[in-house]
Amino acid sequence: MPPGGVTKVQPIITPDALKGGQSTPPLAGFERAAEGGDANAQYQMGMAYLQGDVVKKDLAQAAQWFAMAADQGEDRAQVRLGYLLEFGRGVKRNAAAAAQLYEQSALQGNTEAQARYAQCLERGSGVKKDLTKAYAFYLLGDRGGNEQANKAVKRLALTLTEAQKGKAQEMASKVQSTAGRRY
Question: Which class is domain 28-93?
Answer without folding.
Answer: mainly alpha
